[in-house]
């Protein structure tokens, strides 16, 4: 099936998509980085919703409404902390993307935006993480949803890293 892949350099909290993905921690109770930005923009009802979920293991995903966000849903996933690459981080990061996509498909989400999970506080090298992100999205083909996947980069450097990897893997980017 035809899935559109899009790239943007933006604050994910401002995107008008059906679902945004949050790079959370296993408590789901908020933090810094993109997690902090999402909680600030969604309002305090998001924290209440997360509290009632009661946490999420690394590599898994949980959903909540988007509350005050333009996005209808937030899919919270917990990336691995980078330990040098020999501790199963790649498999855990791939699982974050797969589980988030599976959840989005089950919820019949048409458009979803991912931040660079684990690439901030958790220290995952961006180029390696972006290759996993791109491969998982390109390889996710057992559903009609989501039709549109955004990689929400945060800064020009990240944008060009994603662009380069998409081009190397010969994956077309929609305009
Ligand atoms: N929109 C899009 N991307 C963003 C935004 C934003 N508003 N803000 C930051 N990024 P991080 P992690 C990018 O640290 O590495 C939190 O405290 C950022 O440049 O947010 O998975 C959680 O609670 C980077 O490329 O997430 C956890 O404790 C990417 O988002 C921990 O940090 C991820 O950086 C998770 O660490």
**Molecular shape:** globular
CATH architecture: 3-Layer(aba) Sandwich
Q: Which hetero ligands occur in this complex?
A: ligand AR6
Secondary-structure element order, N to C = EEHHEEHEHEH
Number of strands: 6
Strands of the widest sheet, in order across it, are 1-6-5-2-4-3
Mind summarizing the main beta sheet? 6 strands, mixed
What share of the residues lie within helices?
25-40%
Given helix and strand content, the structural type is: alpha/beta
**Highest CATH level, the class:** Alpha Beta
CATH superfamily heading: Leucine Aminopeptidase, subunit E, domain 1
Contiguous runs where pLDDT drops below 50 for at least 5 residues: none
Beta-strand content bin: 15-25%
Give a summary of the structure in a few sentences.
The protein is α/β, with parallel strands linked by helices and 175 residues long.
Layout of helices and strands:
Layout: E1 4-9, E2 19-24, H1 33-42, H2 44-53, E3 61-65, E4 73-78, H3 89-106, E5 111-114, H4 126-139, E6 148-153, H5 156-168
Parallel strand pairs: 1-6, 2-4, 2-5, 5-6
Antiparallel strand pairs: 3-4
Helix pairs in contact: 3-4, 4-5
The structure holds ligand AR6.
The site of ligand AR6 has 24 residues, from strand 2 and helix 1.
What does this structure look like?
It is globular, with a radius of gyration of 15 Å. Helix 4 crosses helix 5. The chain has a single domain (4-168), classed as Leucine Aminopeptidase, subunit E, domain 1 (3-Layer(aba) Sandwich), CATH 3.40.220.10. The protein has 175 residues and is of the alpha/beta class. Helix content is 37%, strand content 19%. The chain starts with a strand and ends in a 7-residue tail after the last helix. Helix 4 (126-139) links the parallel strand 5 (111-114) and strand 6 (148-153). The longest helix has 18 residues, at 89-106. The protein is built from five helices and six strands. Strands 1-6-5-2-4-3 form a six-stranded mixed beta sheet, with helices on both faces. The structure holds ligand AR6. Ligand AR6 is lined by residues 11-13, 23-25, 31-35, 37, 79, 115-122, 152, 154, 158.
């Amino acid at each position: 099936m035809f899935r559109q892949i899009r790239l943007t350099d933006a604050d994910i909290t401002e995107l008008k998509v059906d679902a945004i993905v949050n790079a959370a921690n296993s408590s789901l109770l908020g933090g810094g980085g993109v997690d902090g930005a999402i909680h600030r923009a969604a309002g305090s009802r998001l924290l209440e919703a997360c509290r009632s979920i009661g946490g999420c293991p690394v590599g898994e995903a949980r959903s909540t409404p988007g509350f005050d966000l333009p996005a209808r849903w937030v899919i919270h996933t917990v990336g691995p902390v980078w330990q040098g690459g020999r501790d199963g981080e790649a498999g855990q990061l791939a699982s974050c993307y797969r589980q988030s996509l599976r959840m989005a498909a089950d919820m019949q989400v048409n458009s979803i935006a991912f931040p660079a999970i684990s690439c901030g506080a958790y220290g995952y090298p961006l180029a390696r993480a972006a290759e996993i992100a791109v491969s998982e999205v390109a390889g996710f083909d057992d559903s009609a949803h989501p039709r549109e996947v955004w990689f929400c980069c945060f800064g020009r450097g990240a944008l060009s890293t994603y662009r380069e990897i998409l081009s190397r893997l010969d994956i077309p980017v929609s305009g």
